[in-house]
Amino acid sequence: MAGDVTGGDLSRLRQLNAQAVIRVLQGSSSLTLTEVARSTGLSRASTEDVVRELLQKGWVAEAGATAGGVGRPARRYRFRSEAGRVLGVDIGGHKIRAVVADLDGEVLHSARVAVTPEMGRLERLAAVDRAVAECLEGAGLTGGDVWASGVGTTGLVDGAGRVLLSDALPEWTGVDLAAHVRRMCPAPVLVENDGKLAALAECWRGVARYAKDLVFLLAGLRTGAGLIIDGKLHRGFANASGEIGALPVLGWIRAQEHLVAASGEAGDVFAAAREGDKAAVAAVRRYVKDLALGASALVLTLDPQMVVVGGGYSRSADVLIEPLKRELDRWCIRTPEVRMSALGDEAVVLGAVRLALDDVEDRVLDGRSPLVSHL
Amino acid sequence: MAGDVTGGDLSRLRQLNAQAVIRVLQGSSSLTLTEVARSTGLSRASTEDVVRELLQKGWVAEAGATAGGVGRPARRYRFRSEAGRVLGVDIGGHKIRAVVADLDGEVLHSARVAVTPEMGRLERLAAVDRAVAECLEGAGLTGGDVWASGVGTTGLVDGAGRVLLSDALPEWTGVDLAAHVRRMCPAPVLVENDGKLAALAECWRGVARYAKDLVFLLAGLRTGAGLIIDGKLHRGFANASGEIGALPVLGWIRAQEHLVAASGEAGDVFAAAREGDKAAVAAVRRYVKDLALGASALVLTLDPQMVVVGGGYSRSADVLIEPLKRELDRWCIRTPEVRMSALGDEAVVLGAVRLALDDVEDRVLDGRSPLVSHL
């Protein structure tokens, strides 16, 4: 009964097929048509059609032939990750990070500009501009070469790339980050909360690659969360998911204070705790208790496969992870696997790159690929 | 490039097309092929093929012709909701409900057996048997006529239909409900937590029909929750989602006690509060504060479109809903729309019917339709 399919069916099928081929090619250095067909489950003829179209559009290139065997060597194809560039930016309290990546998400150049939590809006935006300019220059690019930009920031972000609410940074509520970054890089700019981007990065390049349901805890000067549900970033109806910190009884508001009270710098407290300093050990224990209370609320709500702890404090995994597991065991019906982020400081900016790549990939599948103008 | 598609592609397409046609026909009394094609977006030829196959398999029947207009009147088709029957069961502390429904989910017969929260396992299971037997008999059916059964129960349920943990009912942990119900009705038996089923029912037939993200609160002798995320029931990695009640600081463990302290029966407290009795008003206020604390944790985690309050206490919407909204406003960054369930006591058993229907619909799309044996 499916001998006859409509134009709409076919165009959807073509998009899915093109996406499948790109994903398979992204996963290897090069593949033959036979290998692409096997990995995608597409027929040989479909695979040829898709690869031909992707060659024409510049997403795929020939990659030399396979020698050996009987007869003519098979042609090999590769994803042209060099065809385009994306920008990722992480705007934090202490630093601005900007990276340029290729279409595989490989970071080609990065820049870092130090800032302070006290800086006002204009000063922080100027630092963003410096980081982006430095990064583009280092990569030998201009803003027009960027196909899409992803930007991570603390606070609640709306769908248009504006910061709706930020308690952590002064004068940050209301800033239109998408418009600001578009002035330098006119391609689409996607803005997202830092905890959400770090969660995305952990699923893409981090310790949660095989998890479909994930709670990411951003443990640092600010405590935040990002949720992956059924393999997708869960944003919420107004992009305000994971904001468990707003409930005082769950401890995230005061969590940080235990460390500050014990020492001016959290890093010092963790170092002292590592060396057995009693006051520091007690402060870390109180911090972990509060972190775990909010985390337990997230875990009990979602029953995720995995909890990943990232953010600045994930460097102190050795003194954090075991007490955190014990506290989660205390409250949760089923304690999920607890892992420390391996991405550390890079998680948010990598998540920003992933956000930009998702946008680029959506556009190739819509047939609105920007590639044509670059060939 | 999609001129050539594989067998796998086509079979998936055929399943999607059959599903689309069934959904469209379920939504009306009868439709012409032209109307089906328009509503599904399928081509005329695809529509004809799909409808022919569904006619052969007994899912669809002719429904007389449309008169009027020029030429031969167009044939009309309808979904054969009478082709099969499903069973829904709700096992509670105070009652067992069993219903038989057709493939549209219309309830044809129902039975109710009173039980007590104190009853042991065997007694409660015997009551389940009585309710199911009475319901089947009333509908003129035997167990073999049931295509699928859905069962709702308090407690955590595993994927095989066993109760993993129940605090509310004595001797209920460990009971294999799927195996028990299969003895009477040998078709597949799906067992699920009552809060989760009520959430499903609200999206299907209740006040949340247009919500994609929903927090359902089961407010009654026990406080529970069910989550709909992105249009689907969110079960969690080990089917333990929504169990926020396990965290003492979120108040659900003690919520119920405020009402019991004020009066032996919660219904009495709500009635007294309605009439202005000061002690009752204070007890309801304390109950709502605790209910809202746990609910706020769910809302802050997920940022849902809507909160629906159901369960036994939803009958007292007039004294519950405004204080609940005020408490949510106090804690939530964005308070979602708050609605009282219109399904009341029927929500869990309707969710059980929906669960059974989902199973039947999955099987038609797999080509493993049980219809053939019934024609």
From TrEMBL, chains A, B:
<dbReference type="InterPro" id="IPR005471">
    <property type="entry name" value="Tscrpt_reg_IclR_N"/>
</dbReference>
<feature type="domain" description="HTH iclR-type">
    <location>
        <begin position="20"/>
        <end position="61"/>
    </location>
</feature>
<dbReference type="Pfam" id="PF09339">
    <property type="entry name" value="HTH_IclR"/>
</dbReference>
<dbReference type="InterPro" id="IPR036388">
    <property type="entry name" value="WH-like_DNA-bd_sf"/>
</dbReference>
<dbReference type="InterPro" id="IPR000600">
    <property type="entry name" value="ROK"/>
</dbReference>
<dbReference type="Pfam" id="PF00480">
    <property type="entry name" value="ROK"/>
</dbReference>
<comment type="similarity">
    <text>Belongs to the ROK (NagC/XylR) family.</text>
</comment>
<protein>
    <submittedName>
        <fullName>ROK family transcriptional regulator</fullName>
    </submittedName>
</protein>
<dbReference type="InterPro" id="IPR043129">
    <property type="entry name" value="ATPase_NBD"/>
</dbReference>
<dbReference type="InterPro" id="IPR036390">
    <property type="entry name" value="WH_DNA-bd_sf"/>
</dbReference>
